[in-house]
Amino acid sequence: MQTAGAISAFLVAISLALPAAAGPSFSKKEVRKLLIGNTYPLGRNNEGAMYVKPDGTMDVVWEGKTETTAYKLRSRGRICYELKMFGETECIGFEKIDGESFYQVFGDAKRKMAFSDIKPGKAF
């Protein structure tokens, strides 16, 4: 009986230590619908935002600096761009959770976002 309890406690501890399972990635069409014509918050504490235009460019504001750059929609639900203020190409990915929220994937970090965090039009 003690063995069963120990095994159960071990399994619970392991399940709590595992990262959230990756949901399916957005398609390019879903990323387009999510971002084009909208303002998307950037940064862990919303230090910036990007307004994604249908012409293949986006306006970005980060900690008071602004820049316009081109972007590409890529496979596995990603938008990629290069900003002079950051100095290298970056990609943000998107994974499905449910009808109200999704994961933003940047490098090895995942951040849960609500669809309501995205504002229509240019909001900066």
Task: Explain this structure.
Keywords: Signal. By secondary structure, the chain is α+β, with helices and mostly antiparallel strands. Helix content is 19%, strand content 43%. Strand 3 and strand 4 form a beta hairpin. It is globular and about 35 Å long. The chain starts with a helix and ends with a strand. The N terminus is likely disordered.
Task: Outline the fold blueprint.
Elements: H1 2-17, H2 28-35, E1 38-42, E2 48-52, E3 57-62, E4 65-74, E5 78-82, E6 89-96, E7 101-106, E8 109-114, E9 119-120
Antiparallel strand pairs: 1-2, 1-9, 2-3, 3-4, 4-5, 5-6, 6-7, 7-8
Biggest β-sheet description: 9 strands, antiparallel
Strand content: 35-45%
CATH fold-level assignment: Lipocalin
**Overall geometric form:** globular
Number of domains: 1
Radius of gyration using CA atoms only: 18 Å
Alpha-beta content class = alpha+beta
- Helix count, per DSSP? 2
Q: Which strand order spans the largest sheet, edge to edge or round the barrel? A: 8-7-6-5-4-3-2-1-9
| CATH C-level name | Mainly Beta
Low-confidence residue ranges: 3-20
Share of residues in helices: 10-25%
> What's the CATH architecture?
Beta Barrel
Q: Summarize the helix and strand pattern as letters.
A: HHEEEEEEEEE
Mean pLDDT figure: 86
End-to-end C-alpha gap: 62 Å
Based on DSSP secondary structure assignment, what is the total number of beta strands? 9
Keywords: Signal
Signal peptide: 1-22
